[in-house]
Design brief:
Elements: H1 7-22, H2 31-42, E1 48-53, E2 57-63, E3 66-76, H3 103-119, E4 124-132, H4 140-146, E5 157-164, E6 172-173, E7 177-180, E8 182-191, E9 195-196, H5 207-216, E10 232-241, E11 248-249, E12 252-261, H6 264-281, E13 286-295, E14 298-300, H7 302-314, E15 341-347, H8 366-382
Parallel strand pairs: 3-4, 3-5, 5-15
Antiparallel strand pairs: 1-2, 2-4, 6-15, 7-14, 8-12, 8-13, 9-11, 10-12
Helix pairs in contact: 1-3, 3-8, 7-8
């Protein structure tokens, strides 16, 4: 199995990517995006098409004539709840939402792989192209895996890529071992008792505890290079105290923070330290803790990295150099618990705005590069 995209393919996929960019949908709300993906995939005549996976997930399957492994290539459907400030002609038509992480480009790349599979199916095994929902909040991969229909596409090898600003355009980085940090959001609610602002001593304000935690929590992170297995980081992201009034001493406060570590074991230790700090600061208060956007650490399996590196060499895609693991998190790591898996970084340009910046736009020139990489992987593994 070996095929390449034509110039007309690249033109069509660029238009597809830019149409997705104009119509972003955030985690859990990707119904329209999924419909657009299905319409595009149907042009490539998959043997089977699964929809509604873990929410709005879509999987296209091409069957080989001979027994063999199942190779899954995954991309993401969701955009971000951020107002786009860029001036590209295809900028978001949805106020306050935009594809500022490049998932629109990832979808176009994998749609390009589908076009290649339409021309030449695998000789053996199965090629599965998964368009996964809800990556940005960490819930999508877990929901897809928990879906009973996932048994039909459970992989023997899972591959993905992420565009990476700061790395030269079209260069790639993939290494075995840690690829993305674990992270989770903690929401801390503190409850005391209101009082008249003229008599604050008759109430119980959570203000001092809130101030103490704002100052203390960042210090629980050890910092250091992300390459150090002991790396950890706590970032306070939101705080609220009482009501916007001058006559009331407050009774309630809320604090949000993001915990980040290189390893899952490090996350367990950081969670314990954070909960101990909350208990100490809020000894006289009512407390409620909840966790959100939970990402496990993402680790690249050596055998999956070898598949990607062989494809890079065969396609003459240059390897660059950048610090890994990424501080940012990725729920692709959950597939690594099921099969050898690896995520490759594909350079979006050294001068590119960063991911999640309000003016970020995926470089369309990466579409044929990413598609060629994955088609080579499938050819090597499935014949």
């Amino acid at each position: 199995m070996r095929t390449r995209l034509s110039n007309s393919d690249v033109i069509a996929l660029t238009a597809f990517r830019q149409a997705l960019h104009r119509a972003p949908e955030v985690s859990g709300a990707e119904a329209g995006t999924a419909r657009a993906v299905v319409a595009e995939l149907m042009k490539s005549r998959p043997d089977r098409l699964l929809t509604g996976l873990g929410g709005h997930g879509v999987a296209a399957i091409w069957e080989g004539a001979e027994p063999g492994p199942t190779v899954l290539i995954r991309c993401e459907l969701d955009a971000l709840p951020i107002l786009e400030t860029g001036t590209v002609a295809h900028r978001s038509d949805v106020p306050g939402k935009a594809h500022l992480c490049g998932h629109d480009g990832h979808m176009a790349i994998v749609a390009g792989v589908a076009r290649g599979l339409a021309r030449q199916k695998p000789r053996r095994g199965r090629a599965v192209l998964l368009f996964q929902p809800a990556e940005e909040d960490g819930s999508g991969a877990a929901a897809v895996i928990a879906d009973p229909a996932f048994a039909q596409i459970r992989p023997d090898l899972a591959l993905s890529l992420h565009n990476y600003p700061g790395l030269a355009l079209g260069q790639a980085v993939v290494r075995p071992g840690p690829a993305n940090c674990a992270s989770r959001g903690i929401r801390i609610r503190l409850t005391g008792r209101t009082a008249h602002a003229a008599q604050p001593e008759t109430g119980l304000s959570p203000g001092p505890a809130l101030a103490q935690l704002i100052a203390r929590l960042p210090g629980l992170g050890k910092g250091g290079p992300v390459t150090d297995p002991a790396f950890s980081l706590v970032t306070v992201t939101h705080a609220r105290l009482g009501e916007p009034a001058f006559g009331i001493a407050p009774a309630e406060a809320e604090l949000w923070a993001t915990l980040r570590t290189q390893t899952d074991a490090g996350m367990a230790a950081l969670v314990a330290a954070t909960e101990a700090a909350v208990a100490e600061a809020a000894e006289r208060l009512g407390t409620s803790l909840s966790y959100h956007d939970i990402f496990t650490a993402c680790t690249n399996a050596p055998e999956a990295v070898a598949v990607l590196r062989a494809a890079l060499a065969a396609e003459a895609i240059p390897e660059g150099d950048t610090e890994v693991p990424m501080r940012a998190s990725e729920d692709f790591g959950r597939f690594g618990a099921l099969a050898p898996a690896a995520m490759l970084l594909l350079g979006a340009g050294e001068a590119s705005p960063s991911l999640h910046n309000s003016d970020y736009d995926f470089p369309d020139s990466l579409i044929p590069v990413g598609a060629a990489l994955f088609l080579r992987c499938l050819a090597d593994q499935l014949g």
